[in-house]
Amino acid sequence: HSKDCVKVAVRVRPFNKRERDAGSQCIVSMVTSSITIQDPRESQSRRSFCFDYAYWSHSGFTRDRGGLYVPEEPGGRYSDQDSVFQDLGEGILENALQGYNATLLAYGQTGSGKSYSMVGYGPNKGLVPKLCDRLFQAIRENQDTRQCQVFFSMLEIYNEQVVDLLSRGSRTPGGLRVREEQQRGFYVEGLRTVPCDSAPQVEQLMEQGTRTRTTAVTHMNANSSRSHMLIILQLKQIFSKESITKQSNINLVDLAGSERQRSSGSEADRLKEGTAINLSLTTLGNVISSLADVAVGKKVVHIPYRDSVLTKLLQSALGGNSRTVMIATLSPADICYEESLSTLRYAERAKRIQNRAVVNESPTE
Ligand code: ADP
Ligand code: MG
Question: Which atom of ligand 1 is nearest to the CA of 109?
């Protein structure tokens, strides 16, 4: 049954400048897939957790001439972007090609490495661009057995409003609507879906989306660490000989920072943010807790998917028809102890969720 549980990985990044300048101590250690965190104020107090994968990206690296982070020596313990992709990305790709839905979520406090792991910076490409590279490669390799179509969408959830990051027009006031259909489940009405046939094309769209995100955030006088970014890749495979069509959705989610949100801005903004911005992340936590209870046989009457935009859109990924992976990212520093411990607890609960993924296949019309 383990293959139907949500798979959880943790990753710890190098010190940043602020932490180095503060003379921070590293309070995280890893042995194979288990991780131990030390309370900096109590030498006797440490907690250990076991996950599906634990990635040490804190030390033992060097940067090559192009700026790529690589292990200091071959076979060293530093986990680079490639090794994370080998474990997490390849499986998602494999699932999608078989016709399963797949979801990858990055969770962690702001600055802990969510976007680095998901999208990456410069030469250090993250999971999403690597996944696209391999997807289009696989499509080329399988050309003689099936005909494939890929559609790309990118959106942001801020203040419970959905913003289309690929739409060139002006923003819809109040955001796009989330609707529900029997067959399809929840979806965003009027979201732009762009047909794609190459990885560079997808990367260009991602850049466009990232630029829109930055300007939208500035426009709203907002803080991008408080928004969720969601990329949806739809893969349609038509097997002409068998007259079968397989369809799979891949959700790639860079979540808002998990830190307890401090407000800035006007009183009105504060009130709005206090309720709405946290709502999607808080509800995600509640859904995960409920599903973790279900998994250990507790009676759960109601799973609050409908309470937020994010959990509506991720309903099938959480306890439903999807293979789901979460990567929880951590700062190594003593000053982040509380946040890191809370991230580990959250990840531990997510690990218990059980999904029932099925192949989405139908006769070709
Ligand atoms: P988040 O998206 O969680 O706010 P980022 O992904 O932007 O955080 O990471 C913050 C900084 O840390 C970035 O400058 C990034 O390059 C660096 N960083 C994060 N993870 C790693 C890693 N595994 N190896 C090297 N640098 C990293
Ligand atoms: Mg980020």
Answer: 3
Name the strand (E) or helix (H) holding 178: strand 178-181
Q: What's the confidence (pLDDT) of residue 213?
A: 82
Task: For 267-278, give the DSSP string.
Answer: HHHHHHHHHHHH
User: Which residues does 252 contact at the CB level (< 8 Å), separation at least 6?
Assistant: 103, 104, 118, 127, 128, 131, 230, 231, 232, 233
| Domain extent at residue 250 | 2-353
Q: What is the number of structural domains in the chain?
A: 1
For residue 39, what pLDDT is reported?
Answer: 97
Least confident span in 3-17, 153-167, 254-268, 290-304: 254-268
Beta carbon of 201 within 6 Å of any ligand 1 atom: no
CATH number of the domain to which 222 belongs: 3.40.850.10
Say if residue 217's pLDDT is above 80. Answer: no
pLDDT tens for 297-316 read 888 888 999 999 999 999 98
Ligand 1 pocket member 331 (CB < 6 A): no
Nearest ligand to the C-alpha atom of residue 113: 1
Give the closest residue (by CA) to ligand 1 atom 21.
13
